[in-house]
Amino acid sequence: MDNQLTTELKERYGIVFHDVNLLEQAFTHSSYVNEHRYLKLSDNERLEFLGDAVLELLVSQYLYKQFPEMPEGKLTKMRAAIVREDSLSKFAKECHFDQYILLGKGEENSGGRTRPALLCDLFEAFLGALFLDQKVDAVKKFIAEVIFPKIDAGAFSHEMDHKTHLQEVLQRQGDVTIEYRLVNEEGPAHDRIFFVEVYVNDKMIGTGFGKSKKLAEQDAAEKALKQNPE
After folding, report:
1. Which residues form the active site (predicted)?
2. pTM of the model
3. Is 98 among the annotated ligand-binding positions?
4. Is 121 assigned to a binding site?
5. In a domain, 170, yes or no
6. Domain boundaries, position 219
7. 181 and 146 in a common domain
């Protein structure tokens, strides 16, 4: 494990991992594992899955307590803005996590170290590793330093999650089924563009594209909203 990472975590956040293998796994991308099979390493995807759930719970709890008068719909919008890909990738950069992720040569050469989707996954994987190593209070303490001050400063008060907004607008018309369908992918693996269509009751109402499926879905929802104003 990179000694600079462990030193920075200790000096900036007071975090010292008991199981350094968890920390190493959190910073190991699948491309690195694939290029170093003889090392029998594990990538960070399972930790990302866990960290995503822990983050959503803690952010939900914080918003619930911090904004006692805010209705459920607005709480949902704010939470979505906080935990979405571009927000988490910015947190990862602010923590200097991008400097320590282990990438395969192909991923490195194609700019993976600055790719928002990769950094978002890395941030969630770190939270998952920290949760396993030191339980939920340690994760809460960390995001209380990294995320909560930005919430208090109003950084997300005016953010809009287009998928949530579209769902709210359409559900005012009654029960509807909203579905996002991935219809195409273009470009090399390191610079893929995803194309998505959004359907309501099997009727297409918008199309979008982006460098990840999540961003493509947001783009499709935003364009659908322009066709279906409140």
Report:
1. 52, 124
2. 0.70
3. no
4. yes
5. no
6. 176-227
7. no
